[in-house]
Amino acid sequence: MRILVTGGQGQLGVALQRALSEHEVRALGHADLDVTSAAAVSEAIELFHPEVVIHAAAWTDTAAAERDPAAALAVNGEGSGNVARACAAAGVPMAYVSSNEVFDGEKGAPYDEDDPTQAINEYGRGKLAGEEAVRKAGGDFYIIRTSWLYGPGRTSFPEKIIERAQADGALRGVTDEIASPTWTGDLAPALSTLVSTRRFGLYHLAGEGGCSRKEWAEEVMRLSGIGLPVKPALQADFDLPYRKPVDSTLANHRAAALGITLRPWREALAEHMRTPQITELIAARAGQR
Ligand SMILES: NC(=O)c1ccc[n+]([C@@H]2O[C@H](COP(=O)([O-])OP(=O)(O)OC[C@H]3O[C@@H](n4cnc5c(N)ncnc54)[C@H](OP(=O)(O)O)[C@@H]3O)[C@@H](O)[C@H]2O)c1
Fold first, then answer.
1. Strand 178-179 and strand 211-212: pairing?
2. What is the CATH number of domain 2-154+180-210+247-263?
3. Partner of 250 at 20 to 30 A CA spacing, among 94, 103, 108, 146?
4. What is the pTM for the complete model shown?
């Protein structure tokens, strides 16, 4: 298949390049394609003639989105609309990567695909605007909501926790933010399988199960052998310009019905913790002390 990927140099974009290696892939980074330009998006599609476009580009800095909502919306809402309209005009299906943050987190149980959405921060509102723009464009689409991405090639939550533990010797983790950690090494192949099904629609694809940030940090500490205890904290204890949904764990019903599942989050994390990215980080830091 010929697959065009937006946000091709991002965390998920890089994992997709690896997972899609048997396909003919053009992964365009921000410098190659700015999705806020409708003309540039149309031109990229006309030049490559993809059979599917995976739209992974996004403004993902939640704090910056809160400070400049219009700029974030221009990328996550209107930019996604540009991709969706260009795909619809060219007759190309689009896969839009969306977020757990389209939910308010108040349900008290994992979110099903059809649960009502209600974003509580500007990043979430932008991702939701993107979903609406994709639906309105009139083409074939997959909308795939995922959450708490981490994986090879990037410094994300597990690496930051290890660095903080080794630098400060103390850790705090919030108990009032719960979601599903999702390893890009699992998500990217699942996305690859999904976009070849032509079973269009709305999906959740996240690591199975959920945990708080505190529990996630504790599991990183346990698996790393560092074993530092994680003190409980609340979002309100940190000076953050945004609020995150309290529990936006995603239930993956629709993809599972197609046989596409992701491992329980602890299993995927255990594999990530065995990668050189983590083992070398722990060894290097230990050597500095
Ligand atoms: N990370 C998570 O925990 C998480 C959770 C749920 C959903 N998601 C969604 O998953 C997708 C991939 O996320 P990720 O973690 O891979 O994020 P990422 O590492 O921040 O990658 C996003 C990429 O989009 C690019 N980008 C930003 N503005 C752009 C624009 N106007 N035009 C084209 N490209 C632009 C960024 O480039 P620059 O950095 O050069 O600007 C970046 O390379 C996104 O749709 C995100 O909303 C992520």
1. antiparallel
2. 3.40.50.720
3. 94
4. 0.97
